[in-house]
TrEMBL record:
It is found in: Cell membrane. This is Carbohydrate ABC transporter membrane protein 1, CUT1 family. The chain crosses the membrane at residues 21-41, 71-96, 108-126, 160-180, 201-220, 232-254, 266-285. The keyword Lipid metabolism does not apply. GO terms for biological process: transmembrane transport. PROSITE patterns: ABC_TM1. The lineage of its organism: Bacteria, Bacillati, Actinomycetota, Actinomycetes, Micromonosporales. It is a multi-pass membrane protein. InterPro entries: ABC_transporter_permease (IPR051393), MetI-like (IPR000515), MetI-like_sf (IPR035906). It comes from Actinoplanes derwentensis. GO terms for cellular component: plasma membrane. Keywords: Cell membrane, Membrane, Transmembrane, Transmembrane helix, Transport. Belongs to the binding-protein-dependent transport system permease family. Residues 67-284 form the ABC transmembrane type-1 domain.
Length: 299
């Protein structure tokens, strides 16, 4: 068989095996993205044909007071939840890194909440725990602090959702554990001989050597924080209450798109969120050169 014919058959076979993924990508990812980009420049309510209005949706966004409020709420959540979740994951990973009895059980127990994910069921349980006369409220009353329930308190609703995010630190914890296993024990032993304390060894050896893993987790958790929806929808009743303290960006997007049927407006919000996340990710990649150290990097 000629070489050209054999290569052609191999190419056809390769694309045949790839066709299910390519078909899914076109129909379920690329196609809807292109459609939403077009709809972001239109006025569309699901029941009539889209009407082209140019950049009117985007200009209306910045004049929308509730939109600006949702941006502030979301940024506050990202700034609080992301570092706290990573800190909890890294702390537990360091504790579980050494060899000890029951290590597998503890790893599974700490990872278990992440298996649930941002499900509706766990949000309902969380709402019951932190609601009026919930377990957390009753504990507070026992110690003389009556919060009236975290769910209905505008100053406590955000910390409640941050706690829910931090509680599910299992996924980054496992990634940190994998990174800690790659730190050579010889370096720690040499530093110990030189009199370096445990804290000094962590900041000067462990943290720089797992900085690529830390950077990877930072990117993922920042993106996940911007996407918070299920827990906020369930706990707030779908309207961002109390007093707009849980009016996250994605929740407001849902309200405009599926409650008010302003699909063009919601599409503009979705693309603006995608652009902001992409820009923040690019900035993190640009700034990572000063603190992320890869193996073999001589700088």
């Amino acid at each position: 068989m000629p070489v050209r014919e054999r290569r052609r058959r191999e190419t056809v076979a390769g694309y045949t095996f790839l066709s299910p993924w390519l078909l899914g990508f076109v129909l379920l990812t690329a196609g809807p993205m292109i459609a939403s980009l077009y709809l972001s420049f239109t006025s569309y309510d699901l029941f009539s044909d889209p009407e082209w209005i140019g950049t009117e949706n985007y200009t209306k966004l910045f004049a929308d007071e509730r939109f600006r409020h949702s941006v502030i709420v979301t940024l506050g959540y990202v700034v609080l939840a992301t570092p706290l979740k990573l800190a909890a994951a890294l702390a537990v990973a360091v504790l579980l890194n050494g060899a000890r009895r029951g290590q597998g059980f503890y790893r599974s127990a700490f990872y278990a909440p992440s298996l649930i994910g941002a499900s509706v069921s766990i949000a309902i349980v969380w709402k019951a725990l932190f609601g009026t006369e919930g377990a957390v409220d009753q504990i507070g009353q026992f110690f003389g602090w009556n919060s009236g329930g975290w769910v209905g308190n505008p100053s406590l609703s955000m910390p409640m959702l941050v706690l829910l995010s931090v509680w599910q630190f299992g996924a980054p914890m496992v990634i940190f554990l994998a990174g800690l296993k790659q730190v050579p024990a010889e370096i720690h032993e040499a530093a110990l001989v030189d009199g370096a304390s445990r804290t000094r060894r962590f900041w000067s050896i462990t943290l720089p050597m797992i900085s690529p893993v830390l950077f990877f987790n930072l990117i993922l958790e920042t993106i996940h924080a911007f996407q918070i929806f299920n827990s906020a929808y369930v706990i707030s009743g779908g309207n961002g209450s109390p007093a707009g303290s849980t009016l996250f960006y994605t929740l407001y997007l849902y309200m405009r798109g599926f409650a008010d049927l302003r699909m063009g407006y919601a599409s503009a919000m979705a693309w603006l969120l995608a652009i902001v996340v992409a820009v923040l990710t690019l900035i993190m990649f640009r700034t990572s050169k000063s603190w992320v150290h890869y193996g073999g990097d001589q700088s």
